[in-house]
Amino acid sequence: MSKVEQPIIVGLDIGTTKVVAIAGRKNEYGKVEILGFGKAESAGVQHGVVMNIEHCVRSIKLALDDLLRSNPNLEINDVYVGIAGHHIKSIQTRGDRIRSNATEDDVISREDIEMLISDQMKTSVPAGDQIIDIIPQDFVVDNTPNVREPVGMSGVKIGANFHIVTGDRNAIKNIKRCVEKAELTPIDLVLQPIASAAAVMSDDDLEAGVAIVDIGGGTTDIAVFHDGILMHTAVIPFAGSNITEDIRHGLGVLRNQAEAMKVQFGTVLANEANPNAYITIPGLRGLKPKEISVATLAHIIEARVSEIIEFVIFQLRQFNLVNKLHGGIILTGGGSMMKHIVQLAEFK
């Protein structure tokens, strides 16, 4: 297929702090070439959940305008939308299917696998939730376990273990409504931690066992892989915006001042902060400027980041995944840019 015929793929990430749109197209080597990128400040979203439709729609449109400024020749209609939020849950299930009319010569087809996966849509989920994604982990063909790719094999009974991701039905509807009001068509919803994992991981990471920890603005997303299989996903409702709020309340400053201090002077290890350094904040309405200790700022940041890391550790321990992470933990997302976060994570 020539490059011209390949469709344009657009990803839309509606985050708590920013909305990002990125467009790409597969080249002849199967790699995605980036054609354009746009972002805008996010409004109307808290902890990955839409709280104000109109504000959210405006943010999506601004991100798209920015994308089109980077490449005016793009025509964008269909988008893949990232989803997170504290309403996201995951469950493990098992499904089997008997190929009743199969003869010895009939091999398992892609259609057989699709039917097995679609059977899982009948899985019972809590009231008000709906299934977002069904991910096969490993297959069993007749009596052969741990089959990675059953297509083309002979067998009468086919089964699999599944990782099923669910979310709040209304929260999902609101995300789709925002995208549609921005005159776009959502092709599919993609779980944020899985999208992050696809962006930052290699096949070796997948096999060795890694946990992707994506510290965003409103949520911290986790995806754990081992032996090339997605073992666990979780969304923690604490992230960068909570750190900013802690600074705002703890130091009595405005939100934009708290965010600026976090980004410019913040460190997650109070011991590493200069005890003699101070930040001067202009006073409001003619009041005297405020002197804030860099060490005090660091203490506030360290307390919240420690809590986020402890939540991650709790998730890993709860599902007995700690000893399977031979490839370690990969930190990504805006929150992972903070100074000394790697040292704190290693210490924890």
Structural features, described:
With 348 residues, this protein is an alpha+beta fold. Helices cover 32% and strands 33% of the residues. Strands 3-2-1-6-11 form a five-stranded mixed sheet. It has a four-stranded antiparallel sheet with strand order 7-10-8-9. A hairpin with a 2-residue loop joins strand 8 (129-141) and strand 9. Helix 6 runs antiparallel to helix 8. The chain is globular. The chain starts with 8 loop residues before the first strand and ends with a helix. The relative contact order is 0.12. The mean pLDDT is 92.
Mean pLDDT: 92
Task: Work out the number of β strands.
Answer: 17
How many angstroms separate the termini? 50 Å
Backbone shape: globular
Radius of gyration: 23 Å
By secondary-structure content and strand pairing, the structural class works out as alpha+beta
Content of β-strand: 25-35%
Strand order of the largest sheet: 3-2-1-6-11
Biggest β-sheet strands, sense, barrel: 5 strands, mixed
Order of helices and strands: EEEEEHEEHEEEHEHHEEEHHEEHEH
